[in-house]
Amino acid sequence: MTAQWSSAAEFFHMSGYGFYVWGSYGVALVVMLAEPLLARRRHQQALLQAGRMSDDEPLDKEQA
Amino acid sequence: MNLMPDRNDPTAPRPASGWRLFWFAAPSRFYALTNRLVPLCWLVAIGFAAAGLYIGFFIAPTDAVQGDAYRIIFIHVPTAWMSMLLYLVMAFWAAIGWAFKARLASMVAESIAPTGAVFTFLALWTGALWGRPTWGTYWVWDARLTTELILLFLYLGYIALVNAIDDRRRADQAGALLAVVGSINVPIIYFSVQWWNTLHQGATISVTAAPKMASTMLTAMLLMTVACWAYAFAVVFMRTRAYILERDSHTGWVCELRQRRIER
Predict the structure, then answer these.
(1) CA-CA distances (angstroms) from residue B103 to B95, B122, B158, B223, B248?
(2) What is the ipTM of this complex?
(3) Does A22 lie at the interface with B, CB-CB under 8 angstroms?
């Protein structure tokens, strides 16, 4: 495969430390995907909320 | 102690124009800026992470002593650095927001806290998974680990405190006080390995023996650090723009923003 690993199995085995290495990177990946997704959802909800408030009290009366 | 003019007071004198640095201190302008910066930050974060992980897993050789367990370093050290750095940045903006009644600075501080907590958690988690094969234990109450755990509690305490107070300005002030007082913990974390006899090693970069190995490992670690910086900028800006909308939802520019979205 590469100079480091002769096979995919050897890569995932990590010379016996697969659980620790992939446990570290796996959790990091999950957390670092979840955080921006939550932030994006909050932004979208804020946009919806802002729209609802502007519908209640339209600021620009000429357009309404 | 209200020496500064209130930003929300329309009768307050307007600051002199030409201060380009403060141009983006207005939430509406900062909002527009973040919309341009966030995609750029993601591009940098993903690009550098891909390069760092490639070098870390395919170019950097297996460590003679630790085997492949050492490869946790490429995520552990950058997240640990970020956990400490972000706390100081958070305390700085919280203090600015408190001292100058700058709403945006307080919003930035409150946007940083969850990201700082995430990096602190990841530093502890990856450290535990690295400690088990190298030290024989997931956790030990040594100075470095304990102070890093306190850092996590400081972040969580700050988030809880700011969210517990309904009055926005008082929440910003109370949060700033906690953030500033808590920042004393950061140098304690940093120097803990020198001040106390800890199980945690001192220098991070001198793990390896051969200089050729160290250079590829160091490269991967620095690339991952840049990726973590860009990630932090991206996600903090994403959160700040949500907070701006939430707190400015009563103002004209947010209504106009909504109007433009409908028309498109």
Answers:
(1) 11, 30, 17, 34, 10
(2) 0.83
(3) no
